[in-house]
Amino acid sequence: MTMPTQKLEAGGTLPSVTVPQVGGGEIELGRGDGWNAVVVYRGKHCPICKAYLGDLNNKLGDFRGAGVNVVAVSGDPQEKAETEAREEGWTFPVAYGLTVDQMAALGLYVSDPRSPEETDRPFPEPGLFVVNPEGRLQIVDVSNAPFSRPDLGMLLKGLKFIQEKNYPIRGTHG
Length: 174
Hints:
This protein is an alpha/beta fold. 29% of the residues lie in helices and 20% in strands. Strand 1 (18-20) and strand 2 (26-28) form a beta hairpin.
């Protein structure tokens, strides 16, 4: 099944996507005061995601110190998301249940599982969206494979630079 996705425009807005949150309630992705980073991960079946989110958890204090709110989200069902968040000790908000339509609205690549042991549903490939205090997409990074993701240390340095130098949104043409 091939579903066309539209890439999100730098400087545009993140589509309105509301998903349930581990621990209860819902999150509207990319909404909130200040800077907001939305990290899309493939799901509990992905060891690379687990390592990446572990690194994010280790750097969470630095992101918060830079005024950046962080949330991670996947297409996993509630039980998988809750189990993984608890087992890994993640302290950032974890959302779950992204639908294929929501994945497409976010411009994400979507993959089918290779086997029932991997997972039982289509899942998003990695993405990262940073929304600035004006509600505009400052950074858009979407990958079609688990092996390509932004370095979190470099991202943090970049966000501090953007804030200190009032660096403009790049890539707004084309």
